[in-house]
Amino acid sequence: MAQRTVLLILFDGVQSLDVTGPLEVFAGAELQAPGSYGIRTASLDGAPVRTSSGLTLAPDTSLAAAPAPHTLLVPGGQGTRSPAPALTDWLRRHGPHTPRLVSVCTGAILLAEAGLLDGRRVTTHWAYCDKLARDHPSVCVDPDPIYVRDGPVATSAGVTAGIDLALALVEEDLGRETALTVARHLVVFLRRPGNQAQFSAQLAAQTARREPLRDIQQWITEHPAADLGVATLAARAGLSPRHFARAFRAETGTTPGRYVDRVRLEHARRLLEDTTSGIEEVARASGYGTPEAMRRAFLRTLGTAPTEYRRRFRPAHTP
Q1: What order of strands is seen across the sheet that includes strand 153-156?
Q2: Of the residues 119, 249, 304, 305, which has the fewest C-beta atoms closer than 10 A?
């Protein structure tokens, strides 16, 4: 087995977890499969860098002296807002010759500045997706997934999503058992699928200020198959349907119907990813009633049918 060199770029203002999260994954894999990864860190001039949290990181070497990597990992952080031109130039020269380009969080901005994301589908931290799309119109920015693979380029959302992506890369390189062992040691899930939304339904919507409405949000999440019409939900909240609908939208930023739609879709996706339940059973458990209703919802929101979604995002050996 040929060793894969993983090079992590360091710079002032880097987000420490964007570096240490993936680093711990690759280092853990190297412990399980010695010789699998050669991990190196490098700053532009080889000098220590100060992270956005104030932690100082000492790199192994300078970029000029760094070995040609198999996997080049570019973290994010405040330092991506005004990157050193020399760093962008280095990425522009070396990126096209690297077998696997990886970014965590706003590291995607550095890759885009170097012209390495043109024509690619990518993601980044939700708060910077609009900026990335606006500043680089030739890049297809998807704000929803926690990570995206497009050919040799892999981009991830903020902070912990870098761990998910690194685990996916280890699974690709060394197999599921090695990745599972690393995940267990880090006490994280082995596999949050890359298409999983950066926000759950409850996080995507604002949390209501008033307790009755907060309770309704929680009840919807716990009972996706129940009658979740406005009249029923309003009665549970002790409000008239009109007052409930108006208050729910004012406090959560979305309508009751859209919130219910997102909860049901999220629930169905989890069942398709993590269970062997039949499509009809998943549709009933998620509140769609019929497989056709669930199919329409998946096609409308995700652009794929439930059966195809399961084929793509649930490992064949999932129990």
Answers
A1: 61-62, 37-43, 4-10, 71-74, 100-104, 153-156, 147-150
A2: 119
The domain 4-186 is placed in CATH, from the list 3.30.70.260, 3.40.50.300, 3.40.50.880, 3.90.850.10, at 3.40.50.880
User: What is the residue type of 91?
Assistant: L
Give me the count of residues in the chain.
319
**Residue 297 phi, psi (nearest 5):** -65, -40
Q: Which of 63, 72, 105, 163 is catalytic?
A: 105
Query: Checking DSSP bridges between strand 4-10 and strand 71-74, what pairing results, if any?
Result: parallel
More confident residue, 234 or 199: 234
pLDDT of residue 177: 87
Q: Could you tell me which of 305, 263, 304 has the C-alpha nearest to residue 287?
A: 263
Known catalytic membership, residue 140: no
Percent of the chain with pLDDT over 90: 69
Q: Residue 261's pLDDT is what?
A: 93
